[in-house]
Amino acid sequence: MATTDVETVGSGADKAKLAGAVALLLLGFVGFYLLAGQGALLQWAVMLLALAAAVAVFAISEPGKRLQGYGRDSWKEVKKVVWPTRREASQMTAYVFAFVFVMALFLWLTDKTLEWVLYDLVLGWR
């Protein structure tokens, strides 16, 4: 039987940081809608400031640091990828289109053959 490891926020400080980040997000949404009469510029400024503060608070928490590490590791892996040249990509695209065309032709011929066999030969409906 497989066991699943569930990671939870460990310390009380991390829980408080995550709760603070969520509270800042909610504060930004509430401020956005409460300031509807004050103009769009102020609304968006409050929303973006609250979002930036929530991201900053999340970034200093342990889950935020793990997410940053994951992002760094992912970027290192992306740098290791050997990307195809433009010519190779064009050739592979042409191969895919040719294969799709051949398969479409095959399926159409199979459909028409089965239609002819069933309706004309077996059932005699035409």
UniProtKB/TrEMBL annotation:
<comment type="similarity">
    <text>Belongs to the SecE/SEC61-gamma family.</text>
</comment>
<dbReference type="InterPro" id="IPR038379">
    <property type="entry name" value="SecE_sf"/>
</dbReference>
<dbReference type="InterPro" id="IPR005807">
    <property type="entry name" value="SecE_bac"/>
</dbReference>
<comment type="function">
    <text>Essential subunit of the Sec protein translocation channel SecYEG. Clamps together the 2 halves of SecY. May contact the channel plug during translocation.</text>
</comment>
<dbReference type="GO" id="GO:0005886">
    <property type="term" value="C:plasma membrane"/>
</dbReference>
<keyword id="KW-1003">Cell membrane</keyword>
<keyword id="KW-0653">Protein transport</keyword>
<feature type="transmembrane region" description="Helical">
    <location>
        <begin position="41"/>
        <end position="60"/>
    </location>
</feature>
<dbReference type="GO" id="GO:0043952">
    <property type="term" value="P:protein transport by the Sec complex"/>
</dbReference>
<keyword id="KW-1133">Transmembrane helix</keyword>
<feature type="transmembrane region" description="Helical">
    <location>
        <begin position="18"/>
        <end position="35"/>
    </location>
</feature>
<dbReference type="GO" id="GO:0008320">
    <property type="term" value="F:protein transmembrane transporter activity"/>
</dbReference>
<comment type="subunit">
    <text>Component of the Sec protein translocase complex. Heterotrimer consisting of SecY, SecE and SecG subunits. The heterotrimers can form oligomers, although 1 heterotrimer is thought to be able to translocate proteins. Interacts with the ribosome. Interacts with SecDF, and other proteins may be involved. Interacts with SecA.</text>
</comment>
<dbReference type="GO" id="GO:0006605">
    <property type="term" value="P:protein targeting"/>
</dbReference>
<protein>
    <recommendedName>
        <fullName>Protein translocase subunit SecE</fullName>
    </recommendedName>
</protein>
<dbReference type="GO" id="GO:0009306">
    <property type="term" value="P:protein secretion"/>
</dbReference>
<dbReference type="InterPro" id="IPR001901">
    <property type="entry name" value="Translocase_SecE/Sec61-g"/>
</dbReference>
<dbReference type="Pfam" id="PF00584">
    <property type="entry name" value="SecE"/>
</dbReference>
<keyword id="KW-0472">Membrane</keyword>
<dbReference type="GO" id="GO:0065002">
    <property type="term" value="P:intracellular protein transmembrane transport"/>
</dbReference>
<keyword id="KW-0812">Transmembrane</keyword>
<keyword id="KW-0813">Transport</keyword>
<keyword id="KW-0811">Translocation</keyword>
<feature type="transmembrane region" description="Helical">
    <location>
        <begin position="92"/>
        <end position="110"/>
    </location>
</feature>
